[in-house]
Amino acid sequence: MFHSFFPQPKLFFSSLVVWTLLAIGVWYTVGANFGALIGLPPLPEGTDPPVGLGYFITPDNIWFYTYFLLCTVIFGVFWQVKAKDNPWTNWSIWGSAFIIFSTYFSVQVSLAINNWRRPFGDTLMGAFQPNSTVKVENFFDLMLIFCQIAFISVFVYVITRFFVSHYVFRWRSAMNNYYMSLWTRVRHIEGASQRVQEDTMRFASITEGLGVSLIDAVMTLVAFLPVLFALSVHIGPMPFIGEIPHALFWAAILWSAFGTFLLAFVGIKLPGLEFRNQRVEAAYRKELVYGEDDATRAQPPTVRELFDNVRSNYFRLYFHYLYFNVARMFYIQADNLFVYFILVPTIVGGKITYGILQQILTAFGQVSSSFQYLVNSWSTIIELQSIHKRLRAFEAAIEGQELPSIDRQFVEVGGNEELAK
Q: Does the pLDDT value for residue 326 go beyond 70?
């Protein structure tokens, strides 16, 4: 799944994690301030960032783009040389770097929009006041600024989606070429055609989607946690608790951690059931396909037994999804109200303006949703785990290894694969 596309996957990804942590550590210790030595200093402390397109070209942002490019080139050139025999390095190394940067830039767009919310919200509330001095031009100017940011957002999104589509297909092509080169050894494996044709496509697409979502979540946290930390100075006492330093910051972390552990606990059985579902469906489909050309196959007793396996697994899956969805939906609905709940004393006390409230809601929502990566992606993760199990069993059969434990729960009975009783 990975070694067909990435060079030496275990070493590649472990070195990527180490290099990333090192780069982040250098940035937050000396790197950010180093830009001042080359004429790209950070914004003075207490200075609000520019509202509009100027936000993207502040000296500190330009220095970060340069720093990111430098770190990427060092890492990429090292692996380009080390894995010169891998035909997919241009996509797996440089393509991944482009996706990471475009994801980071999308987070920057979100920050730019959040900066815009305060002046727009305050202008809106000012217009409601008696004897308001707000003019029509004030709104139009702010709307024009938003349109400029939105245009950048649309452009980045379209280019990224176009590139990602090609990236995913290249990854699928790498897996397809690898499996087809061993077709004479795998053609007799159950569901070989489905695994090569369908599972490779779904695995590459879902892995890329989850990977980008994870990167986006991490970068959103890095970008918005300081914002939430700073906005906490406007917050009054917490309901039933009282004053807590940086209340918004800690509330977002604790609430999101609670949701993550809750959903992980109640959904722990779902990946195995989804995998079993793939297997019983494959066994049923396989018998029907044989029955198209062989009158002795797909006989009513056999088909009935195979379909009973399908029905039993689906009913079991429906039951476990029942309580999972109850927990998930209750948490999501509570999440919609949680931030307002902790802001009630602050709002009633008149300690924040409407513009600051909009910034808090956006920043809290971004941090909360990032911490809730598992909550928001759990169903997709379950599907990916199911596909991964199928492909791992496939590769184990290719390499003559012992099948994973869950595969050994399936036995050959009367020429048909079914769940062992």
A: yes
Q: Which of 135, 108, 124 is nearest to 357 (CA)?
A: 124
Q: Is the pLDDT of residue 411 over 50?
A: no
Please report which helix (H) or strand (E) contains residue 413, including its range. strand 410-413
Give, in order, the Cα–Cα distances in Å from 192 to each of 43, 195, 203, 324, 397: 58, 5, 15, 32, 11
A 10 A CB-CB count for 18 gives 10
Q: Under 8 Å CB-to-CB from 164, ≥6 apart: which residues?
A: 99, 208, 212
- Please tell me the least confidently modeled range out of 118-127, 184-193, 200-209, 231-240: 184-193
The predicted structure's pLDDT at residue 187: 66
CA 365 remoteness from chain centre: 16
Half-sphere exposure of 361 (CA within 13 A, CB side): 16
Which pair of tokens denotes residue 114? 């959040």
pLDDT value at 144 more than 90: yes
Q: Which helix (H) or strand (E) holds 417?
A: strand 416-419
pTM above 0.90, yes or no: no
φ/ψ (deg, to 5) at 333: -65, -40
Confirm if 287 and 403 have CB atoms less than 8 A apart: no
